[in-house]
Amino acid sequence: MKKFIPYLICLVLFTVFCCGIYGPVFLYLSQENYFAFDSEAMAFVLREPLGTLYWISRFLMLPLQNQWIGGIYLAILLTLLTWFTDRTLRVSSKWYGIGALLPACILIWAVSRGYNLFMRSEPSKVVFYIYVFLLLTGILALVISLFFKKKISAEKSFKWPVGLLCPILILVLLNVGAWIYRQNLILSCDMQNKLLIADWDGMIEDALKAKNPDKSIAAFHAIALNQKGQLLEKMFEIDYDFPPTKLDDKDGLDESENFTAECNLFSCLPQPAYHYALCQQVVEGPRLRFLKMMIICSALQQEDALCSRYLAFLDKMPFQHEFVETWERRLENPQLTAEDPTMVRILQQVSFEDGFENDYARPCYIGFNLGVRRATPETLKASMAAALYCKDLDNVIFRAAYLKQIEALPTYVQEALVVASAKRPEILQQFPEISDMMKIRVSSFANEASPYLEQEDTSEVYEALYEKWGNSFLYYYYFGNRNRAVQDGFVTAVN
Amino acid sequence: MALFRVIYSLLFVLFMLCACSPRAEVPVNAQPVSDEAPIYPDYKDIVIPVNIAPLNLIAQAEGDQYVISVEGEKGRALLAAAGKKGKLQFDESSWHTLLKENAGGNLQVTLYVRNNGNWVKYPTYLLTIASEEIDPYLNYRLIEPGYELYRQMGIYERNLTNFKEISIYENGAGGDFNHCVNCHNFQQNSTQNFMFHVREKHGGTVFVLNGKADKRIMTNDSILGNAVYPSWHPTKPWIVFSSNMTSQVFHLRDKQKTEVIDSGSDLIFYDVENHTVSNILKTNSELENFPCWTPDGKSIYYCSATLEALDTLNTKDTHHRELAVRENYKDIRYNLMRIDFDETTQSWGEPQMVLDCAQRGLSVSVPRVSPDGRYILLTLGEFGQFHIWHKSSDLYVWDIQKEELRPLEKTNSADVDSYHSWSSNGRWMVFSSRRDDGSYTRLYIAYFDQEGNSYKAFMLPQEDPENNLMRLKSYNVPELTKDAIQINSSQLRDVIYADEEARKVSYK
Asked: What ipTM was estimated for this complex?
């Protein structure tokens, strides 16, 4: 029995990584997967180089649809790989477990890929590599055991496996390193997983854990706040000094595909959300995430036949029947959709304007909200958030005049109005509800921030001001998100 | 040994499961029901060509066993059976035999469904077999209705007498290989001479003349822009193109989703042998589009709209022209025009209005003259020219002799019915329609009799009828041909990738 101890230790370590630290990433990976036995449904994958192998590996990653089952499944595979590698190397019991270096390398590769693990990349690659190495080492181990049987059985006493120390050290470092260097990826995947089950509080908590949130986290944070009706109260709780996301250059380095469809949908722009999801599906091939998005959008657009087509397509994938049934019921009885709290919040933001996406700045969920003129109170709040995010003070002033008829102006808005009043003092007369306390607060910020206004090094500014002023429009306006938030409208050629 | 026995038993069970497909036998005690047979695709009461592939279908009634019988006056009845999935697929050779034996007559089709042990029989429907054959090959492009992006797409040829589909040319899916191919067009329903455009990487227009391929860059300072919508002269190696400045805009809410903006269009003439191009109509505020030769080669029909707002804008000022069209897009209506051609002097006459669509509150697109020269099959919608995105779009025929316009009521649907073409004998038309789900276009075939009557259209049959649901691509630009493609895709690829050999056309 003792000889299994090294492998039990490996199993525990791999489980900690696959279920724990990187569990949300592997769970989310399953949303980027699509598998069906139907070859027509898998035509996109089959046409790619190594298509048939990826088809098989997509099947083999189906257990990842559950975080625990998927994590344990991967851990077992990785442990098996460790054992096969040990057998291939024919190590003595002292070195049992040294084979964990190989699966550790696969995991290091997976971590090093960051968002590239699934974004604009075949999502089943990690499972593919595990199985390829399993197969190779399995065959080698078998061959070696057949030819060198005597020598292996010659060893009689079990020795404590000092060779295991090396992979233990690597796996511990991997766990720590993944949390430090891939925190944004882990959290954003966790937020995406939580979005599927409408765990808005969980998403907000995740966002607050991020040390230096990236755009994906900011986007999912905004969605969660919007669903909770807290966008204008809490949107600047996180820092908007986005770090660059290292992506493989495939016709550009845009990470927006990770969240744009969702942001469009949750801004009650189902058609642009559908448009974006479909475009991504064109480029990436069928994926659960896009299919579900297109199902929801086409249902919201009352395109029942189209929705049914996607449902039939999705139903070909194992373990998706519950989602399919839910939406089939909703197609039969749209009232069920209207009663879903998530959909209720989305539909509350319905606007009365039609036009072309191209008429608005990009991305659409911001551009539309910046441009919208006739809308519901909920849209007004979202559009105010967009104006604050874009530091568009004219738009803030315009919208504040309407917002104050609905509710007391939130602190962020008041701060923005006081900032705007520096150039246009008459604003304070237009908004007499802005208290003297607020004016003092802004002036206090101005005093503290003035030495840093020309500062290029954001880390120094962060240290000096963020703790006190971070959760304010004031800090955001002067020091946050210095890149341009929106781009002009666009025109595309006809294919 | 025990292990062997287990494996053997498992294999036996597997074999039995495979062997236990339902028996194709007409149930004797089936109870008749009055509801229409629930089948997909809808193949009820249609006219079909004698050489068409089996009309395999899915029975959509709840049940665990399905049988379908097809009977004619002559020959043996054809049966097919299915299990729970309801996929009813006919034996190909028996199907063709039955159709040939009953050409010019009717076939009676009856669906039987077993549910909870009881068989029901749905009302019989008819398949009328026209004795005129359809051209055996159908060429189309497959691309997602995904607006501006593409990755895996190509032009394909389908044999209509069976289910064989081959790729004429597929793009390379990514990186350096990714490009768009479109607007394939054939001379007189033959694959001897044809062309298609390649856009983006390795861009140009590929011409196949007498089986030999060549790529040309179809731009020249003297013409508006790239060559776009083509029409081959019926006998000579000449092509008339529209040259367009088009772009797309996307609706925020409107279910029509996309509007194609035509902010500048002219007509150009291209001599394929001499590689020379010349303007036919070069105008500023007139938008000429979708040319089509008459079968005698003495004139072309085309669509044209006027937008006065373009009068003051230079043709190079694409931004402002696009804005002008966008602002007025719902008011831009195209009329059907004709311009005569003198083959000996290669000169053009004056444009003549054929059909004032704008006056009727309609806009015309894609006129296609029937092979006998009697009719023009065209699409009419409420506005614009890219009717594949317009829900109001329907097929009409213009009777040239009687000067009469008729909608093809039996053929049209409530959704988009657009891009269409004729068979070489003029008895069949094929077109793309969004009637299935409003988004993914599928190909429909309809009979057009000698008196000019059209019939209910039916969906392109597939070996696996579920393919029409699972294929997440739209079918574009269906073109019928009498013969199969002679050139293979690797030859075309060589020509497309040889950028250094692709020369620009010269202006004549």
From this structure: 0.93
